[in-house]
Amino acid sequence: MFLSVMSLFPAFAGAQPSATLQDAVKKAIISNPEVQARWHAFLSSRHEQDVARGGYLPRVDLTTNVGRENLEQPNLPSTHYTRRGAALSLNQMIYDGFATRDEVARLAYAKLVRYYEVLDASETIALEAVQAYLDVLRYRELSALTQANFAQHEQVFRQIQERVQAGVGRRVDLEQAGGRLALAQSNMLTEASNLHDVSARYLRIVGELPPGEMIAPELLEQGIPSNVEEALKLAYQGNPGFNAAIENVRSAQAEARGRQANFQPRVDLRASQEVAYNDNGVAGRRDDQVIELVLNYNLFKGGSDRALAKQYAERLAQSKELRDKACRDLRQTLSIAFNNIHNLSRQLGFLDQHQLAIEKAREAYRKQFDIGQRTLLDLLDTENEYFQARRAYLNATYEHAIAHARTLAGMGDLLSALQVGRDGLPTAQELGQDRKEVDPASQCPAEAPQGATAVSMDLAPRAIEAAPARSPEPLPLPATPPPETVQQALTGWAAAWSAKDFPSYRAYYASSFTPENGRTLEQWASDRAVLFARPGAITVGIDGLKVHTPDANRATVEFVQTYTSPNYRDVATKRLDWVREDNRWKIQREQMLGAPKQVWVPNLMKPAARKKLARKSANDCKCD
What we know:
By secondary structure, this protein is α+β, with helices and mostly antiparallel strands.
């Protein structure tokens, strides 16, 4: 299971028993009006094709009549009599320019269009049901998180209030704690409102309120290929929306062919048998039998048939453009969803490290606050950062699950992955689908932009390559260098470090520089580039400077270095050995004299340091 069962809120829970994701999706595709409308349109198309097939069969009509007739003729007396009769006629189409054949073919493709529209609506509603189901779980958990955050802020507020009432606390701290408490309460109300909204969306899609207990689903990983190109190829075969667009083109082609029948003659076989009594004033019975071939060839119709042919040619072009649009929409949707899977998967690791580190820092800050080593602002800030870290991890977890569902829906495989289907729905092959004429891949190449999965997380070597070391402004060195000149180089080195100007900082180190701990120069430069890329401002202070210059090409400085960042601070004694290189002072050796006094609470650790909050050895410290 990739999620835990959420804590429940009676105000937003329905009266139904526990439910699974499959239950919700099944109810959605059966009861949702949009899916039902597509289903009835599909059933209608099956009967519509039967209507067109009737054009192949003869038409038989029976006509009877009875009436009173008055006959007046010159020089003859008028007569009155009763006439009656019956006629049976048959009309069989022999040739109609293949209009009936093309109409049956058009409606066969139209039936497939309606079929794929049912599948497309089902996949779409299934995806919406999955998202609604997961969003209800998400906001139930977020509501619980905001309640816990509110409880923590309320506890701090009560603690400060007791101190103020006892006369040992400051009122400004109480005001600050009260403001943070109000913000925590606002966050709680916001998430409660969000939970209400997603519950209303769940009701619209599924047709019922979310149950009180919703079982967390497993991550939908089965059936997703390892690369986006393969996913696109599968989507071109399985995505119902794209397949509907292809069948719509074939339907338009058959319709355009059918318009050409207007330029062809029509041949019918007609047969009739008529019996009449007292017809036209002649007393008695009259029998009339006829069988004939009738040819009808329209010679001129005002140009209507030619205009109609052009009209349907444009409709064919329109259907092809809509097919290309469906291709582009599919490629975009699927490539984004596929990229989100891998991107969020990697983010989850870092976000998990973040929340674990902040959780430990939060506990440490609270203990330090209780003994007066941390200010109220420190405590409130770390409490808020912990809340935001938990919230970010929770959102990323659910977005990761939704990205899997969106990818499967784009491939047309979401319902099969959930093992949910609609009873009575035939297969495309049973409906006569034949893809020998159309290759979806040829109409829509499997192309996608390079995703985040192709971006290396080791940015240090690339940063060094992209930003070669540039030398600082040269400092003129006399034959016997005075101490002030070395001090200027040291000041420039510290300033480049504080400004996070890695190329300038790197230029202060000589080509003969040897890092400590057995690292190579490339490893040292890579580690430093990563540190420079971390967010947040830093400062490097220098105190107690001692300079020794044994000759014109060498110098040694010792000083107390104070390094400060948003989450770390240390004070250490350091020694730098300088040499002249290219008419500049450069560092040949860098050495810590004793362990630094340090406090380290990282906001985000590297993956290799997930289970460690700090490196206690000065040689392994990456913070200076």
